[in-house]
Amino acid sequence: MADWLDLSWLDLSWLDLSWLDGTTTAVILFFIGLAGLVLRKNMMISIIAISIMNTAIILAFVTFGSSTAHRSPAAATTVAQAADPVPQALMITSVVIGVAIQAVSLVLILGYYRQHKTLDWDEARSLREGVSPAEADPFRRARAALGALFGPAPGPRPGPDPGPDGNGDPRDDGPPTGTRGSNP
Questions:
Q1: Per CATH, is 21-66+86-117 categorized as 1.20.120.140?
Q2: Apex 102 CA angle, 142 and 57, nearest 5
Q3: Which of 30, 84, 131, 161 could form a disulfide with 56 if both were Cys (CB 3.0 to 4.6 A apart)?
Q4: Phi/psi zone of residue 26: left (φ > 0), alpha (ψ -120 to 50 degrees), beta?
Q5: H runs (alpha helix) in the chain
Q6: Is the pTM of this model over 0.70?
Q7: At what angle do helices 85-116 and 43-65 cross, to 10 degrees?
Q8: What is the C-alpha separation between 137 and 144, in angstroms, rounded?
């Protein structure tokens, strides 16, 4: 073994990974992909996150369908020992379809970037709708729609308190500035 690869000095006895099985790994991978999809506005990262979620789903199906009592059909001596090859074939097909979809998506994103010089989802939406990126923000739209549906939120409104005279200074009880001399 190469000297630089010698890891005998590394003590990992404290690291217990007995809880880490295929199902747990699939759930962790799925939520990593979901976080990447929800929290990032970049188109490339969205495609990669969807690919991670696809891998997690395939891992979950393979893990749910696996059994230590069965062997691969090529290695089994009896039919009762053989695992069903159909789910394995479906998962291989799913992997191939997922890779093809990812390749086509990346090609489409590359073409979009060459034409519009952006990979941001909000900027793409603003270009499509002809508005500023702030107006194309879907969360801003949702807040506005909910505000129109349910009315203003109860409680104090953000911003300066207009005060009794309406000039923005709650400490001043006189008329608005500029109507009667200057305020001290």
A1: no
A2: 75
A3: 30
A4: alpha
A5: 22-39, 43-65, 85-116, 121-129, 138-150
A6: no
A7: 180
A8: 11
